[in-house]
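Handoff note, outgoing to incoming analyst
You'll be picking up this chain. Sequence as last confirmed:
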Amino acid sequence: MWIQSISPEQATGLVKQVYDAAIARAGKVFHIVRAMSLHPPAMQQSLELYKVVMLGPGALTRRQRELLAVVVSQTNRCHY
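Most recent structure output, in case you need it:
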């Protein structure tokens, strides 16, 4: 990764908490999370926003939201 970040092995405090939760949920810490690791409050707030958008009430199902995320990522030529 070319953006300076905190590795899972170096993580402490809030960064470690967020990383540990990511590993428990997905088996790894995705690069988008690591990219925010130098500003732990922003990283945590970003993940909270993600949870609201993807898991909160709304007209779209979780599956539809995930499919939209895949399409946007594909359009932007980035890994999902």
